[in-house]
Amino acid sequence: MRGTLEEKEQSTIVASGRIDITGHIRYEDPPAVTDPNDNPLNLLGIYSPNNDIRFLTDPNDPNTFNLDVHAVLMAGNLADGFNSRVFNANWNATPPRGVIRLVGGLIQEYLGVFGVMNTAGQLIRGYGSEFRYDRRMSRGFSPPYFPTIDRYQVRALDLAGVRPVWREGSP
Questions:
Q1: pLDDT beyond 60 at 160
Q2: Which of 21, 57, 112, 169 could form a disulfide bond with 85, CB atoms 3.0-4.6 angstroms apart?
Q3: Are strands 67-75 and 43-48 parallel, antiparallel or unpaired?
Q4: DSSP assignment, residue 113?
Q5: pTM for this prediction
Q6: What stretches of the chain show up as alpha helix (H) in DSSP?
Q7: pLDDT tens digits for range 1-33
Q8: How many Å apart are CA 137 and CA 107, to the nearest integer?
Q9: CA 161 and chain centroid, separation
Q10: Are 95 and 123 a contacting pair, CB within 8 Å?
Q11: SS3 content of the chain, % helix, strand, coil (to 5)
């Protein structure tokens, strides 16, 4: 998938299998990550509950150098038995491709690889990463029908040195 989300559009894309990102995914009106009060209306969620989200770009396509992704990405669920992650499919097989600039959020079961750096910190394979949190999420803004938990409750109190156990609360 690749493309642009219109100025006032809010969408969630869910697939039971792997989701491939093949190019830029941009908001027509992206949030200003340095301005906590910026509130554009467009928002995208990309969710693969039973598999990975991978970046699968053509190394010969100049339009995929320095890739922009504006979305909240979520891969996996704890009960599926699959090691879900967000990663670059060609992290070790392509020359340096610049950076993946994510504005949004990243939720994954396991850490995915985007590229390889040498001991001096220079990118030598794949993509580097520049991830910026979309502050609208901290204000309760989320993609439509995206899996969220907004209420928690304590199951066991911290008595006699026992740490509390948290679980999802009911509305």
A1: no
A2: 112
A3: parallel
A4: P
A5: 0.82
A6: none
A7: 999 999 999 999 999 899 999 999 999 999 998
A8: 13
A9: 36
A10: no
A11: 5, 40, 55
